[in-house]
Amino acid sequence: MTAPSRDASNIPTRTGKEYPPRKNIPLPPTFSDPFEHRAFLKFRLAQAYRIFAKYGYDEGVAGHITVRDPIRPDCYWVNPWGVHFRLMQPELLLLVDHEGKIQEKESGPSRYLNQAAYMIHSAVHEARPDVVCAAHSHTIHAKAFSALGVHLDPITQDSCAFYEDHSLYSEFRGIVEDREEGVAIATALDQNKAVILQNHGILVATKSIESTVFFFMSLEKCCKVQMLADQAAAARGLRPRLIDPENTARTQKRLGAEMGGWFNAMPEFQLLEHEEGKRFEYLPTQKENM
């Protein structure tokens, strides 16, 4: 694992001034060995599932996070169906191709694949080659907000991260059991990082596991805040005050950027590693078991 180069971008403010380059923030690791990269992504994906479990983002056997494999980009890693998120470890993950076939050599011992996970995530990964990680689950506030069939409003600094970067899939056709429905969801996602699935939940797809985890958590919170604000405003005969488009767009460029999502996720992964006492380690001999 090698240290990446730094490329800080300057974003103009309303007065025309520039934000100073950020020189002291860490950046994502890079890998010269594709097998080490695979091992890291599997380790990170298992951590992501355990973080979801920590916050109650599980719903029975529903919910899934996938990451594109760096060695076989036509395949992705996903959880085995029926194993609790809190128990997820790298060696349990399944490697699945876009046709839904579990790769025997690389996959964990439990070979049960959630059909909805395959239908949705295969379509997303195929339609969006830029997407490395996608997450979908039936979280409480996202489910409630999705029933309204509307987009999120820019009413807080945090919700600005999704300004013109999330979409709405305004259909519900039952459990996703066919490819057509998965393609419809991927089409609704378009080039955005998130889509609200009406009467269902949310899906977030970005260029890293970390940013997907952060933006998923943030969108769930924003759905909660939107409903609280709407309720409080209605009780007073008001409507929530929207942030003006100029400042919303400017804030989105900072908070909604891929790097912003990655960096904002770091405390969650750091805390998990502190609580579990387990950090990523790689031995070249691991190649034999991957």
Structure description:
The chain has 290 residues and is α+β, with helices and mostly antiparallel strands. The protein is 38% helix and 11% strand. The chain is built from seven helices and seven strands, in the order αβββαβαβαββααα. The protein has helices at residues 34-54, 115-127, 140-146, 179-189, 209-235, 245-255, 258-276, and strands spanning 64-68, 75-78, 94-97, 133-137, 166-169, 194-197, 201-206. A seven-stranded mixed β-sheet has the order 3-2-1-4-7-6-5, with helices on both faces. A hairpin with a 3-residue loop joins β6 and β7 (201-206). The two termini are 18 Å apart.
Explain the layout of strands and helices.
Elements: H1 34-54, E1 64-68, E2 75-78, E3 94-97, H2 115-127, E4 133-137, H3 140-146, E5 166-169, H4 179-189, E6 194-197, E7 201-206, H5 209-235, H6 245-255, H7 258-276
Parallel strand pairs: 5-6
Antiparallel strand pairs: 1-2, 1-4, 2-3, 4-7, 6-7
Helix pairs in contact: 2-4, 3-5, 5-7
Widest β-sheet, arrangement of strands: 3-2-1-4-7-6-5
Please identify the structural class as seen in this structure: alpha+beta
Q: How much of the residues is beta strand, in percent? A: 5-15%
Sequence stretches where pLDDT stays below 50 over 5 or more residues? 2-21
Q: Tally of extended strands?
A: 7
Overall mean pLDDT score? 90
**Helix run count:** 7
Residues in helix, %:
25-40%
Rg, nearest Å? 19 Å
- Which H/E pattern describes the elements? HEEEHEHEHEEHHH
The description of the largest β-sheet is: 7 strands, mixed
Termini separation comes to 18 Å
Structural shape: globular
